[in-house]
Specification:
Elements lengths: L7 H20 E6 L8 E4 L16 E4 L4 H12 L3 E3 L5 H16 L3 E5 L13 H9 L3 E7 L5 E3 L7 E3 L3 E7 L11 H29 L7
Parallel strand pairs: 1-9, 2-5, 2-6, 3-4, 3-5
Antiparallel strand pairs: 6-9, 7-8
Length: 223
């Protein structure tokens, strides 16, 4: 399979994936709940909720961190077709440093970034310290995002991260945590625990927030 994902094949696969997701977009309704709309900020989410970027506004000013893997080539192409920008470091440890510096520069220029905080290989739902270092050096807040739906069409895939995606008609919410500001005096571990707790709190609040949105019938499609 890996050998097939080269050159033109990667382009063909990314075209197919984009067409499938573009069709799914017709059936997907996303409502933002409590987005603080800070700019610049660093949006963070679980790897399983990576598609939640689709519900975030100002796509042209949102840069999404995507790995340099073969899967990443497909994801980056789809994300850019959706109207977002991507951040790509080269492969290896130097690439991680390169991507970090790119994100810091972007945030300092006044635009937003987004990244999965338990990737790229897990363990799932454990915040790593990369986002902490980036936010601290850029001087911007971290804004946690949690993706949620009670619809049975909100499917969970059998991957290491248990990725979630709408399949056919699905109502969803993006629920946001309070901005987390990290001073230069804060330890990375203390800040990491704050982000971890915020994402866990959002998981607890999401069902009630979904019911509240559903009660008022305000679902609408994001464009």
């Amino acid at each position: 399979m890996v050998r097939l994902l080269k050159g033109k094949n990667i382009t063909r696969v990314s075209h197919l994936v984009f067409r499938i997701l573009k069709l799914q977009e017709i059936f997907t309704r996303i409502i933002e709940v409590n987005n603080p709309n800070r700019m610049p900020c660093l949006y963070v989410m679980w790897h399983a909720h990576q598609f939640c970027i689709h519900g975030i506004n100002n796509r042209d000013k949102l840069h999404v961190l995507v790995s340099r893997s073969r899967d990443g080539e497909i994801i980056a192409d789809v994300v850019e077709r959706w109207g977002f920008k991507t951040v790509r470091g080269s492969k290896g440890k130097k690439g991680a440093v390169e991507a970090t510096m790119q994100m810091i520069s972007i945030l300092k220029s006044g635009e937003n970034c987004a990244m999965m905080v338990d990737g790229p290989k897990g363990p799932p739902r454990i915040v790593k310290d990369g986002a902490i270092k980036i936010a601290k050096l850029a001087g911007v807040p971290i804004v946690p995002v949690y993706w949620y739906s009670k619809n049975f069409t909100f499917a969970q895939f059998p991957s290491w991260d248990k990725m979630r995606s709408p399949v056919f008609a699905t109502n969803l919410i993006n629920i946001y945590g309070e901005p987390i500001y990290i001073s230069s005096d804060d330890s990375d571990e203390e800040a990491r625990q704050k982000v971890q707790k915020s994402l866990e709190d959002l998981e607890e609040k999401a069902p009630a927030a979904f019911d509240e949105v559903y009660k008022f019938g305000i679902w609408r499609r994001k464009k």
